[in-house]
Write a structure and sequence with these properties.
Blueprint: H1 2-22, H2 33-42, H3 45-65, H4 74-109, H5 119-136, E1 140-148, H6 150-157, H7 159-176, E2 182-185, E3 190-196, H8 200-220, E4 226-234, H9 241-256, E5 263-268
Parallel strand pairs: 4-5
Antiparallel strand pairs: 1-3, 1-4, 2-3
Length: about 270
């Protein structure tokens, strides 16, 4: 951000210097829009507003310094206010457009109920991490989590309670994982947690803490939900993300078909 601010305000200074050198006969007002637009788009609304004020102020100083005289002393002030208003409107429009685009982009990548990433974005992120595994040889672990008895929550407490349970689960998982890790909702009550640069030993620790956190949260809310978890650590590249998910899903199902409420681990070495 600091670099972008430096570039933006340097451009404002450059336009002001050119306006001073050329004189008031040549109009440079529109050129201030370039750095104002740059700052508003890449840095934000507040700095775009500041850039607008600075640009209007520099224009006024350059106009006065160039020897431009007016029959009425209020005229240059009025012109400055008009330019400032125009700059501010452009800044507000651009920053609002950027925020709207960012919001739409986020909505396209996340599950609207829980805030976890959706299946499509998860596949893209998982592919990026798999590519990194291929380049650097650092292990990658995937957890596949299925909720046991989740239908009971909906039947006994209603779908609103079911939604609250899903939201609570995602929050609990986010509390236990790193910012570099990814929690995704792949189905109604199925979640995946992507753990980059995580070997099986570390994965055991993460899963253990996560199980304790989730069980405590379920008990606190009196939700009869437990968790069947498959955990696959990749030492080498898996041919496709679909295969990665399928293998981890099978580990989860082996827990589901046995005792439930447990985790099963495996390692993929090619």
């Amino acid at each position: 951000m600091l670099l972008r601010l430096f570039i933006g305000f340097s451009l404002i200074g450059l336009v002001g210097a050119l306006e001073f050198l050329v004189g008031y006969e040549v109009e440079f007002s529109l050129f201030y829009l370039i750095p104002i637009a740059f700052i508003s788009w890449f840095v934000g609304r507040s700095f775009g507003f500041i850039a607008s004020i600075v640009s209007a102020g520099i224009w006024l100083l350059a106009d006065v310094a160039s020897g431009h005289t007016y029959p009425n002393s209020f005229t240059p002030i009025w012109n400055t206010l008009v330019r400032l208003s125009f700059y501010v409107v452009v800044s507000l429009l651009l920053s609002s457009l950027r925020r709207a685009l960012d919001r739409e982009s986020k909505l396209a990548r996340t599950d609207s109920l829980t805030g976890a990433v959706n299946a499509r974005w998860f596949h893209e992120l998982a592919q990026m991490e798999m590519d990194r595994l291929g380049r650097h040889g650092r292990p990658l672990t995937l957890m596949y989590i299925d909720l046991d008895n989740f239908k009971t929550v909906n039947d006994r407490f209603g779908h609103i309670a079911g939604d609250r349970a899903l939201q609570s689960i995602v929050r609990s998982i986010k509390d236990q994982i790193r910012t570099s890790d990814v929690i995704a909702r792949l189905g109604g009550d199925e979640f995946a947690v992507l753990l980059p640069e995580t070997n099986q030993k570390v994965a055991h620790v993460v899963v253990s803490k996560l199980q304790a956190k989730l069980h405590k949260e379920m008990e606190r809310n009196h939700w009869p939900v437990t968790f069947s978890i498959g955990v696959l650590t990749c030492q080498t590249v898996v041919p496709s993300i679909d295969q990665l998910v399928h293998m981890t899903d099978e580990l989860m199902f082996s827990v589901k078909n046995a005792s439930k409420n447990d985790a099963k681990y495996a390692t993929y070495e090619g």
